[in-house]
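Appendix C: a fully annotated inverse folding record. The material below is reproduced so that readers can follow the format used throughout the book. The structure is listed first as tokens, followed by the designed sequence.
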């Protein structure tokens, strides 16, 4: 375990916000967490800072930031085509995906190149190109900060939804995810229905695991800004889920408005990027904050922006979308 005081967070959040935290502790797993529990660390302000790719700091953090550093991936069981794999919270997410692909295991390949660590992946049920991490999670191992005990929760009980889970709601601030148990398959199961993934994979020579991973990485590189070059946290907003009637009323007015199916019955998903563009925000910036030119969902730090400036910018966009379409777009990023 390593402990630091007054740590600069600029290089520890992909938005590149120049905040400071009073204390940071790098811990290596459950034994370290038990020691921190015995020391009473969870009695004062604390939070897990994992890869920092879904967090916006609006001020300095006056508590303890806990950062997992344990990185381990291993096969824990096999049954027919199904292979159980356990990865610890501090494992880089894309290392896990690359490992799965290299071992001929299907399920995670569409989630290639999503920044962050494995322990954060269930929090917002990360998703991309028609796959969500819930599709491959068997269970999540937790450390309960009120009792100091370890608990395992089945994926089916994590209340996963669109960029949502029990960890963002009733268990927020009560547990630390220490490992995730995945169920992957040796049987080919390409999911290529989303956007131009089928075409890109075909151009690479067909739907092998390696080609799907390469295609996803290529599409992402072309579409999303690299946080090392321009600070951002990926999609800042979630696509709004609205009742079907609301969508039909809007469609009557805006014939070109995209509508997508939603897992919520009686509801559909609208494209937040389209709503933002049509509200007059395409490519706009205000001071040190802007909308990425190729992806309206992504707010970028143009250099030296504060978290408060980002929030002000985002709030204006939300208000304009609400005014024009009567639809509220929620934030996906965790604002601290
Ligand atoms: C360029 C870019 C592209 C992106 N693309 C996608 C995408 O395609 N799909 C997608 O879903 N997301 C995407 N994201 C968002 C982000 O990568 C994911 O949300 C990722 O899972 C965050 O991981 P992290 O380790 O950086 O978490 P952090 O940002 O450090 O933390 C996120 C939240 O989870 C909590 N948390 C983290 N670890 C734990 C833990 N072990 N136990 C309890 N709570 C924890 C934190 O306290 C915080 O509230 C993108 C981000 C960027 C910058």
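Designed amino acids, in order:
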């Amino acid at each position: 375990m390593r402990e630091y005081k007054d740590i600069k967070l600029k290089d520890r959040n992909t938005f590149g916000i120049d905040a400071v935290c009073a204390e940071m502790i790098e811990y290596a797993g459950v034994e370290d967490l038990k020691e921190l529990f015995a020391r009473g660390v969870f009695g004062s302000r604390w939070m897990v800072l994992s890869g920092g790719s879904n967090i916006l700091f609006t001020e300095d953090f006056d508590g303890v930031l806990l950062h997992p550093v344990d990185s381990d991936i291993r096969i824990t069981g096999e049954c027919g085509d199904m292979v159980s794999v356990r990865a610890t919270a501090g494992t880089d997410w894309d290392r896990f995906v690359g490992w799965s692909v290299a071992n001929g295991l299907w399920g995670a390949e569409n989630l290639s190149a999503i920044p962050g660590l494995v322990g954060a992946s269930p929090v917002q049920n990360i998703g991309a190109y028609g796959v969500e991490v819930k599709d491959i999670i068997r269970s999540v191992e937790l450390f309960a900060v009120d009792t100091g005990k370890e608990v395992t929760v089945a994926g089916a009980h994590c209340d996963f939804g669109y960029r949502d889970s029990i960890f963002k709601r009733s268990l927020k601030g009560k547990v630390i995810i220490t490992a995730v148990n995945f169920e992957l398959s040796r049987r080919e199961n390409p999911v290529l229905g989303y956007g131009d993934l089928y075409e890109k994979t075909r151009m690479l020579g067909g739907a092998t695991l390696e080609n799907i991973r390469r295609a996803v990485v290529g599409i992402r590189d072309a579409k999303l800004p690299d946080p090392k070059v321009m600070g951002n946290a990926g999609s800042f907003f979630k696509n709004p889920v609205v009742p079907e009637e609301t969508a039909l009323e809007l469609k009557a007015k805006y014939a070109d408005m995209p509508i997508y199916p939603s897992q919520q019955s009686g509801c559909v998903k609208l494209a937040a990027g389209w709503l933002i563009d049509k509200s007059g925000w395409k490519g706009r910036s205000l001071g040190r904050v802007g909308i990425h030119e190729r992806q309206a969902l992504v707010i970028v730090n143009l250099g030296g922006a504060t978290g408060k400036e980002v929030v002000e910018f985002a709030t204006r966009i939300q208000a304009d979308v609400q005014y024009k379409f009567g639809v509220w777009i929620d934030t996906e990023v965790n604002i601290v």
